[in-house]
Fold this protein.
Amino acid sequence: QVNTPAATQLIKFKEAIGPFGGQLTTSSGMPCQQCQTYSLDKPIMTNDFLMDNLFNFARERIPERVVHASGACGFGYFELTQDMSHITKADFLNGVGKKTPISVRFSLTLGNKGTPDLFLGIRGFSIKFYTREGNFDMAMFNTPVSPFKDPLDAHVTRAFRNNPATNLPDSNMLWDGITRRPEFIHAMSYVFSGWGQPAGYRHMSGFSAHTFQFENKCGDAHFVKMSFIPVAGIKNFDSKEGNIMNAEDPRYLASTMYNEIASGNPLEWTVNFQILNMTDYKKLGATIFDATRIIDEKEYPFVPVGKLVLDRNPTNFFAQCEQLAFCPCRVVPGILGAPDKLYEARRMNYRDAQNYRLGGNHNNIPVNCPFMSENPLNTYNRDGVPPVLDNGGDAPNYFPNSFSGPTAYDTHCSRLISIKEEKPYNMDQVQNLFANIFTEHEKDQLVNNVVPLLRFASPRIQTNAVKLFKTANEVVGRKIEEALKKLNMTEIP
Ligand code: HEM
């Protein structure tokens, strides 16, 4: 580990800078004197260097993301390999060969900032496309489906956290949460079968889960699910390997990616679209917008449309990764978002979370700024918590106005279709997953991962969980039941 780019980052910095790092200053720019750089035997209050440092020290923490707190990021580009103008007018999807700068953040849905990388769990894969029409954000999971469909499922993430009284992981909460929402079992089966411990970010996939509504120049609607498939192949650790790696290097995924990128070994994904039209929607109904279900790939195959490459590391983690803010609300003309309720709620909730976490001007933070936009920040937003950048300069600050302030020119009004949703049902797809897609190894993995997590739950909750797995697959459910019996648990009152 001693010679990796991550381990030698500071040595390289020194080589690049030379022996002298410049005159030390306070944050207001005052050059510091040597005597201010040690505090003992000196007046404290008049030492501006010390005061500057202590005030900053006490304020250096901001709220961590309420979910997906632990993560790593990288930068690169998206290249379009197939023109998509027949389904969308989005500029970055029009014109083969067009390259769009991107930032990507990989995360772990649960836990907190210090949770080790290979803690078993569903993974986040977020992308910000800095397009000429503003930023387009995707916040995806690594599994083909989402556990959630109902925005109220946000509550269930609490069941996956520590017990509010003991502050300890709680099997009863975890399995109560899963079994009270049986539709979770589809996504969770992927997680338990191995996808919860990817063998590297270069082996991790991303799936939109939502079906987006696209619109072309003629105003025609198409519906698109997206997948990001690693060129190096999807690979996962088995539970034993994953747990060993977690103990040896709790930042295994982040450090591997950093070293790979710094060594000139970029990470790459094929970007694919599964495309449906209005006739397909009329035939299949709102089920195509159910984030807990997949759409039949035989009838609607994913077609490759581009590639995603990560070839640049952040130069400062806090500035470029912690401050990165992805929101389903950030769309561009030609991509309207998704018409389902989960997406609608996410549009609002991420904005709210980022206003709280980063402040009302979080789009002005350099890593979130639409720096490729042809109309960068031509808004009427003014003032507030920094950064305000030039704050609109000397342009009018109200709308409408008679003084040539920015105006909306496009007279066309795009609208998401309105759909009627019902309670999720995906047991048919989980059954198919176990019967026809999972390998025997993946099924064994699932049993190996589920049993240690379920063994401390009460018998009633264990019974519910076994019943749920038996509905998904009788053999796998029975294996879990037998393994639990062998462990001979005593009842928890
Ligand atoms: C019940 C529905 C959901 C709610 C209420 C919710 C809420 C949130 C919130 C508040 C954040 C933190 C945002 C921030 O502070 O920057 C977040 C992050 C994230 N969410 Fe969700 N989410 C939901 C469902 C989903 C689904 C279905 C997906 C994937 C398809 C998803 C993927 C992500 C990802 C990848 C991040 C991390 C973004 C980053 O890297 O900063 N979420 N979510």
Notes: The chain is about 30% helix and 15% strand. Residues 70-150+201-364 form a domain with the Catalase HpII,  Chain A, domain 1 fold (CATH 2.40.180.10). The mean pLDDT is 96.
